């Protein structure tokens, strides 16, 4: 097997912070290399260096592409094609090396190599949203200068390769996340790529959809005899797809070898960072008595979304509302926040030593409590074109002198799970430069910086991978430990709830059917509920 890419002692420095430190690895022709690492470990930076389309001010080491090249027409092929005839002009292909660290960003050779590198990113679909799927692929053919009259036929064939020919006339923005990723793959295959750089391509997809995307990717790797570098937080993805794996920690390669062995080491390192959740809690800060919310439905008549429930939440407690979709937990959380009015019952929140009736409107009633309450949605919305410091101050109308704003932002980021150096380093970054786990902690900091006493979190883990879940778990535990926050967590992720909550209320058909410590309550789930909760994840 020919060596295709050699990375030697690669170091990338951003303002004194080394994102990559003396990274060395080899990628063979046709080989799938998996990269595992926690959020912020340097995976994405390594992918950008391999891609070769951007410059880095402080970079050293070597990133050598071994190629076969036609000196007459410039055609580039994988190294095993050395001494074969060029398919364009029939001249002999000669061995050639290109170092992306030394080669100028504007060198024509670098650009030619970059054209044969395919890339898939976690969230950036890069599609013409209002165009049909078929047109999206045909546009890619135009972008590489394909002039053949059979462009439409070729586009259809590419969609067949990714098993999406049944969606070719759909408008791109109306596709599901997994379907969009397969259109992206089809658009990248237009390049006849030598390598595919897949950076968390299924990180936000549900397991079933992710499986379809993975199958499409591996078919393409086989059909095009591509090499692939794949990053993931999901150890099982690396185990199933990679030929070999590396483990990145704080920008350094700490292990290289068999994917199963590397992923085992990765999960062991993840489990070591869990924190103890046993703390002392205070008196009740939320009281709910005989709470009910009813709707009238044409099809179903009276719908009892919440049906006469009662519970307390203690100050400093992490309290869980769990159950499958339709159990009533999200409706309950919205009533707690004052977003929805109840049909009947009592909801009170303690402010200081006084109880505030959340069913009464006005700044002297519900308004007194809501200003001390924060709500973190599953689909949190950071301002992607603003820096982290702007997201934590100006963007949320937090009017502070700059120095005080920076100081408060660093303190809040520390409470949300960053160490002090990392908190200072991310302030000037744009949010789309950060990993998913880092963005989630920024979103939590965005809530915490307003100094709430109570934070309600709706499905905080979503389809999150196990490592990011650990980061989110620890950020919540740290915020409770550092600044005494009270959390109400709404979730159908039973493992997460068991890991983080002090007490849990299990809801079923609008009622609370059990309330107590997580292990005891979650044991009351039926097999059907467990299956449905797993499917919803």
Explain what you see.
This protein has 537 residues and is an alpha/beta fold. It has 2 domains: 3-116 and 192-271, P-loop containing nucleotide triphosphate hydrolases (Rossmann fold, 3-Layer(aba) Sandwich), CATH 3.40.50; 318-339 and 370-536, 3-Layer(aba) Sandwich (Rossmann fold). The protein is 34% helix and 27% strand. The protein contains 18 helices and 21 strands. It has helices at 43-51, 108-115, 133-143, 151-161, 177-189, 207-223, 235-241, 259-271, 329-337, 366-370, 388-392, 402-415, 420-426, 436-448, 466-483, 494-500, 518-522, 527-536; strands at residues 3-14, 17-28, 32-36, 59-69, 76-77, 94-99, 117-120, 195-199, 227-232, 244-249, 252-257, 284-297, 301-314, 318-322, 344-351, 354-357, 373-376, 454-458, 486-491, 503-508, 511-516. A 6-stranded mixed beta sheet has the order 7-8-9-3-10-11, with helices on both faces. It has a 6-stranded mixed beta sheet with strand order 17-18-19-14-20-21, sandwiched between helices.
Helices and strands in order:
Elements lengths: L2 E12 L2 E12 L3 E5 L6 H9 L7 E11 L6 E2 L16 E6 L8 H8 L1 E4 L12 H11 L7 H11 L15 H13 L5 E5 L7 H17 L3 E6 L2 H7 L2 E6 L2 E6 L1 H13 L12 E14 L3 E14 L3 E5 L6 H9 L6 E8 L2 E4 L8 H5 L2 E4 L11 H5 L9 H14 L4 H7 L9 H13 L5 E5 L7 H18 L2 E6 L2 H7 L2 E6 L2 E6 L1 H5 L4 H10 L1
Parallel strand pairs: 3-9, 3-10, 7-8, 8-9, 14-19, 14-20, 17-18, 18-19
Antiparallel strand pairs: 1-2, 1-4, 4-5, 4-6, 10-11, 12-13, 12-15, 15-16, 20-21
